[in-house]
């Protein structure tokens, strides 16, 4: 066993023991404990737990990976995910806490005086939470597969068992205290390596400042200028300038913002505090704790990209000794190759790795390889070889066209002149960048192991919160609220645990074949929340005129349109090969990506809801008074003229 494995087992094992001990100590004994931790959590504790609940594998593992490869364009994730908390703190959290219900569907059912509305809200919540938890399972699998030396599938199974233990038995009470511990682990795991790496590259130990500092190599270049030079020399787009369209960046930012404000598993957290004031304070504290990671992420992403590029491109582009030799590639590369999340192919047989932008040639070659593999499988199984052969012919034509373009295009011709025949780093999964970063930067083994513990903590904390949201919807909203109102507290808790078990199995299965990187999958979930839950909550709080028919029609229109758009480009129910059109900007509606479409869905939700409400009866008078009472602070009297 290597020193790194020992450190990993010690730190990850110690963190698991801590989580299990807390879950057992704080296990739920009542439905109040299970759903809202008895309503007695302090605002600072709740803010820390909320931060851990929300800063998932997407934030810890994947967001910096997206920043590493998208650069400036990925700022939408930073602005959207943090800006959404401001919206939540100002527009939703205090009012929902004042309403005093356990769950979002319960609020919807009471506010819109309809069991049907409550059922529709449950359906939306389950779709959102399952989509979200797929991303967490991907993060769990990625982390376990590398650091525990198991396959990604086995990593998922281990993660599923751990989440089940403290989510099913601890409930919200156990999860809250576990998430406080997980926040401490994940924030240390994220910031400690960032401090080391920032100091190594720039001489400044504060990552946020290191991002804008000069390099420590004596060149006098600013770090971002150095990164821009490295990536553009290799044919990639400049890192620090906008490459995506303004409308897509704007729509993605808006989707992530209103999606954050409508996330059911986060909204539940504001019912765990004692007062409305504490709910608002919790949101503020959560933003502080989140900001510690989110202000560090741009530096982590940029520095990871620079370290990766310089590891492969060791000298001047095109020079005889400018590229890393295959046989000399560092141990971290070999370790990650075993997971299948990074791969190389010596296309020109020179024994060195060329990592550059080949104008789509690599993708065309990979598509051809996949088609040829499918043909062989069809031949072995005596399947439909005609269709498989047609796919091979189509892929071969595309690969030939890509090679012709590569050899003649001015942007890639210089690489062809060097004798390079395509990008030889054939895969770099975004989700490995944070986890591999300490290894790339040659940091101590205990730091690498700490990052593993942090990545697992981030994924498990959010997965637990999401599973609890699903469980409470099934047991509290469907069973107790509609189907079996006289169900005993004991049976309600049992139903919650059964729902968690089913949800874990579903999420684990889908996590083995996710529709994208963890952050991309999570962005889809935010889009679904933006198009369904956020509008119905906003209208429920701020519109006395909104009625049952409008709310139901709006939710169905919003989530239906958004799901249709996502499935159109991502495959029906995320099943690969069922896409209706290639997921490319030229095919998108107004250039809006599936991840950014939630805002369009939200607009459809609002429009349909208000149109339907206009032509249907007004809400009962007591509901209109309820809406007014929720918005007016208790104890406020009428205006007094002096």
TrEMBL record:
Q: Which UniProt keywords apply?
A: Cell membrane, Ion transport, Membrane, Sodium, Sodium transport, Symport, Transmembrane, Transmembrane helix, Transport
PROSITE patterns registered for this protein in UniProt: NA_SOLUT_SYMP_2, NA_SOLUT_SYMP_3
Q: Which InterPro entries match?
A: Na/Glc_symporter_sf, Na/solute_symporter, Na/solute_symporter_CS, Na/solute_symporter_VC_2705, Sodium:Solute_Symporter
Q: What residue intervals traverse the membrane?
A: 6-26, 47-69, 75-96, 117-135, 147-168, 180-201, 249-271, 283-304, 446-472, 493-511, 517-538, 550-568, 588-613
Regarding the membrane, this protein is recorded as:
Multi-pass membrane protein
| CDD domains assigned | SLC5sbd_u4
Query: Where does the UniProt annotation locate this protein?
Result: Membrane
Superkingdom field: Bacteria
**Similarity comment: family membership:** Belongs to the sodium:solute symporter (SSF) (TC 2.A.21) family.
What the entry lists under NCBIfam families is as follows: Na_symport_lg
In Swiss-Prot or TrEMBL terms, this protein is called Sodium:solute symporter family protein
């Amino acid at each position: 066993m290597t020193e790194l494995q020992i450190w990993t087992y010690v730190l990850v094992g110690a963190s698991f023991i801590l989580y299990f001990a807390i879950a057992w100590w704080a296990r739920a004994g009542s439905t109040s404990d299970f759903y809202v931790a008895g309503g007695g959590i302090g605002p600072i504790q709740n803010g820390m737990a909320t931060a851990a609940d929300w800063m998932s594998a997407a934030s810890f593992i994947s967001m910096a990976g997206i920043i590493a490869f998208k650069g400036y364009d990925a700022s939408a994730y930073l602005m959207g995910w943090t800006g959404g908390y401001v919206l939540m703190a100002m527009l939703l959290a205090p009012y929902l806490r004042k309403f005093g219900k356990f769950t979002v569907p319960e609020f919807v059912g009471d506010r819109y005086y309809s069991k049907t509305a409550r059922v529709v809200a449950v359906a939306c919540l389950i779709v959102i939470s399952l989509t979200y938890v797929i991303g967490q399972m991907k993060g769990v699998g990625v982390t376990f597969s590398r650091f525990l030396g198991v396959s990604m599938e086995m990593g998922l199974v281990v993660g599923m068992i751990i989440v089940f233990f403290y989510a099913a038995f601890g409930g919200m009470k156990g999860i809250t205290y576990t998430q406080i511990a997980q926040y401490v682990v994940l924030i240390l795991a994220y910031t400690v390596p960032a401090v080391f790496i920032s100091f190594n590259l720039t001489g400044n130990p504060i990552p946020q400042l290191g991002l804008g500092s000069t390099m420590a190599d004596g060149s006098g270049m600013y770090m971002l200028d150095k990164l821009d030079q490295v990536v553009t020399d290799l044919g990639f787009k400049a890192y620090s300038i906008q490459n995506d369209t303004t409308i897509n960046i704007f729509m993605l930012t808006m989707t992530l913002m209103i999606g954050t404000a409508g996330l059911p598993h986060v909204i539940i957290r504001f019912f765990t505090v004692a007062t409305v004031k504490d709910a608002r304070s919790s949101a503020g504290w959560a933003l502080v704790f989140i900001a510690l990671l989110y202000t560090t992420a741009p530096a982590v992403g940029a520095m990871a990209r620079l370290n990766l590029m310089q590891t492969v491109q060791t000298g001047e582009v095109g020079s005889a000794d400018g590229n890393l030799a295959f046989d000399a590639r560092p141990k971290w590369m070999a370790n990650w190759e075993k997971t299948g999340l990074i791969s190389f192919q010596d296309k020109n047989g020179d024994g060195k790795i060329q990592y550059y932008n080949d104008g789509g040639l690599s993708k065309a070659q990979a598509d051809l390889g996949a088609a040829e593999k499918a043909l062989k499988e069809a031949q072995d199984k005596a399947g439909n070889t005609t269709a498989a052969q047609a796919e091979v012919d189509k892929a071969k034509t595309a690969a030939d066209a890509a090679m012709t373009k590569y050899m003649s295009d001015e942007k890639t011709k210089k690489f062809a002149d060097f004798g390079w025949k395509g990008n030889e780093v054939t895969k770099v999964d975004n989700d490995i960048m944070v986890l591999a970063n300490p290894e790339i930067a040659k940091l101590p083994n205990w730091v690498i192991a700490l990052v593993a513990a942090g990545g697992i903590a981030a994924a498990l904390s959010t997965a637990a919160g999401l599973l609890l949201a699903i469980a409470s919807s099934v047991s509290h909203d469907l069973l107790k609220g509609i189907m079996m109102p006289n169900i005993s507290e004991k049976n309600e808790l049992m139903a919650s645990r059964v729902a968690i078990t089913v949800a874990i199995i579903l999420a684990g299965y889908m996590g083995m074949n996710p529709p994208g990187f963890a952050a991309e999958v999570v962005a889809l979930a935010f889009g679904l929340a933006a198009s369904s839950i956020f509008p119905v909550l906003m209208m429920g709080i701020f519109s006395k005129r909104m009625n049952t028919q409008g709310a139901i029609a709006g939710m169905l229109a919003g989530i239906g349109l958004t799901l249709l758009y996502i499935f159109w480009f991502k495959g029906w129910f995320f099943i690969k090969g069922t896409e209706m059109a290639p997921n490319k900007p030229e095919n998108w509606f107004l250039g809006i990506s599936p991840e950014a479409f939630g805002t369009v869905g939200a607009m459809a939700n609002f429009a349909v809801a208000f149109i339907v409400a206009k032509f249907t009866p007004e809400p009962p008078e007591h509901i209109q008074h309820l809406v007014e009472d929720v918005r007016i602070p208790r104890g406020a009297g009428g205006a007094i003229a002096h």
